[in-house]
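pasting for ref
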Amino acid sequence: VTIVQNAADLSAGKRLGGGVKETGMLSRASVGQRGTLLAVNPVGRWSQVDQQAKDATVLMLNSAFSEGYDLGGPLGEYEQVYLLRRVSKGWVYRGYPGKWQAYLERPDGGVELVEEYAEKPKLREVAECVRKASFDKL
């Protein structure tokens, strides 16, 4: 397992034991063939991670993966397995292998499931659904 962090002081890399190496620099050699790459907060480096880890299993954690107003990011072939994102009046949630879910935030701070999606919806669609559910409660 290779762990890549978005930090300059890790450029030399260090072994963490158990076959795990932590590094701030990413190269094909550091990942190895068919290895596992855990990219922690790869802000703006998604394409670099994708190119250098061709045959590896890639996990991106705490990644601000969306570059616009939508769910997902610039690398469409990656599947988002966990997401919790704020929308107007509520939240959109997905926990693999479950469905995408739209939640309305109640005045007491709790949440109420208002819609489920088998396929990844557009963020705008989820926001409109939650907003409509909120107005219907008035």
